[in-house]
Specification:
single chain; 357 residues; alpha/beta; four-stranded antiparallel beta sheet; 15% strand; globular; binds 4'-deoxy-4'-aminopyridoxal-5'-phosphate
Length: 357
């Protein structure tokens, strides 16, 4: 059989998302996927595993709506925010004719989700210092060669680390009322509280917020993320979602994580992570071959070294796996370091201090 011929043309051309797990690497200290360094304990009840789960488990949706102070009709749960990103593309963009707008460097799944679904991608410019404004996005929207249906903005941004300002978001929402503006808040629990903008979905019908339990909640392994948006947007995406996206054990664990106790633990975990981040920043600043450390409201630091590939490779040889952004727009010599445990970060500093560049 000619397998190549069997595969659709756009899939033949695809490069899948290079997730940390797909790239792999032999090591013992994985600081390349912005995961939490420690897993928590949960209870599991196996009495209903013979049954299909609800498409949108009620208790899960209610708890998450309470956590975000929105109504349950404004919430959808999915397999990580990655699935939400894909659903947004599939639900709102016409194949080959319409598409999405992104502002690189940004989270890689936005363009991969678009390409996988055969929709188009336009890029907006950032300022030289990597900051992003509503005007830059509006300019990107106007210059796109096709109708832009969805704009993806990560806030805090990955790998840049900082939040998109609220006044810029509102300006954008008002300027493009017929375009969906997606604010990806995967790292929001690490950011100062006033960056949490979920309440704005009550004021702006074109705003979608995505969230995840993968980062501050320390639950990347269960794949659970959310969309928060106007009820009609949620309803449209629920037409497209697979029949049983949330496995029963996933819902059980997520409900426990979203209890008052679980949320408090998450907020404490995020505070402790931020303290380790600032200690790492102070330690890195002392190294002569560190050129720049980007500001960060998230659980990672993006660092420009005098020789990024050398740092990345030397660390990998020691079994410390970081994430290189060498080939990404404007990020030559930049390496992202996830904020691991104290022990993991001490190991990073031990090896970096011994490096000669
Ligand atoms: N958005 C951003 C900005 C991310 O960095 C990531 C994960 N690296 C995701 C979304 C995906 O998270 P999830 O595990 O919920 O699919």
């Amino acid at each position: 059989m000619n397998f190549e011929k069997l595969i659709t043309k756009h899939v033949q051309k695809l490069t899948p998302y290079q997730s940390a797990r797909r790239i792999g690497g032999h090591g013992h200290n994985f600081l390349n996927a912005n995961e939490s360094p420690k897993s928590e304990g949960y209870f599991l009840n196996s009495s209903s595993l013979n049954r299909y789960p609800d498409c949108q488990p009620e208790e899960l949706i209610e708890r998450f709506a309470d956590y975000c102070h929105v109504h349950k009709t404004q919430v959808m749960a999915a397999r990580g925010s990655d699935e939400v990103i894909g659903l947004l593309v599939r639900t709102f963009c016409e194949q080959e004719k319409e598409g999405v707008l992104i502002a690189p460097p940004t989270y890689g799944m936005y363009s991969v989700a678009a390409e996988t679904n055969n929709v188009l991608v336009a890029e907006a410019e950032r300022n030289e210092d990597f900051s992003l404004t509503a005007d830059l996005l509006i300019d990107g929207y106007n210059k796109a060669q096709f109708p832009v249906k969805v704009i993806f903005i990560d806030s805090p941004a990955n790998p840049l680390g900082t939040c998109f300002p609220k006044d810029e978001l509102i300006k954008l929402l008002k300027a493009l009322p017929d375009t969906l503006v997606v604010l990806d808040e995967a790292y929001i629990e690490f950011a100062p509280k006033d960056n949490d903008l979920t309440y704005l979905v009550n004021e702006y019908e074109n705003l979608v917020i995505t969230r995840t339990l993968s980062k501050a909640f320390a639950l990347a392994g269960i794949r659970c993320g959310f969309a928060i948006a106007h009820e009609q947007i949620i309803k449209a995406m629920l037409k497209v979602i697979d029949p049983y996206p949330i496995c029963d054990p996933v819902a059980q664990i997520a409900v426990q994580a979203l209890s008052n106790h679980g949320v408090q633990m998450t907020l404490d975990r995020a505070t402790a992570c931020n303290e380790r981040r600032e200690k790492l920043r102070a330690d890195l600043e002392k190294l002569p071959f560190v050129k720049k450390i980007f500001p960060s409201d998230a659980n990672f630091l993006l660092v420009e070294f005098a020789d990024g590939p050398k740092v990345f490779n030397a660390m990998a040889q020691k079994g410390v796996i970081l994430r290189s952004f060498e080939t990404k727009k404007g990020l030559k010599n930049c390496v992202r370091i996830t904020i691991g445990s104290d022990v993991e970060l001490e190991e990073v500093m031990r090896y970096l201090s011994a490096l000669e560049i």
